[in-house]
Design a protein that fits this description.
Length: 124
């Protein structure tokens, strides 16, 4: 199991991908949930992309359809993210936060940091 951010209605970014995600050997299930809703949304990924910047590696998953949830983050420009990763010694999660890419917790129906979970290999 790994956490990620919904960076577009049909794209999830996973800053610390588990072994097997990037080489395709892991079965992936993407679960999107809101702290304010009981229902969990499941959307299958159609692609997993490995991104390497400043010596760090993370995953970007393209989804088969758009989520009903608002994105809770945005993908920074590569040059901004690369500089942030270098400044944080390869820690993609900290770099993402310092680049201002995470949404601020907002009222019901809006994006929030606790919005999404990416579940890898859950078997269901």
């Amino acid at each position: 199991m790994a956490s990620g951010w919904l960076v577009a209605p049909d794209r999830v970014m996973v800053p610390e991908p588990p072994p097997g995600l990037l080489d395709g050997s892991l079965e992936v299930a993407v679960l999107l949930a809101s702290a304010e809703e009981d229902e969990v949304e499941r959307i299958a990924p159609i692609g997993v992309n490995a991104v390497r910047l400043a010596g760090a590696e993370f995953a970007v998953l393209d989804l088969t359809s758009a989520s009903r949830h608002a994105p809770n983050a945005v993908m920074p420009e590569p040059v901004v993210l690369e500089a942030a990763i270098a400044a944080h010694d390869g820690d993609v999660r900290k770099a993402f936060e310092s680049a201002g890419a995470l949404a601020v917790v907002t009222p019901r129906g809006r994006a929030c940091r606790a919005h999404n979970i990416v579940d890898h290999g859950c078997g269901t």
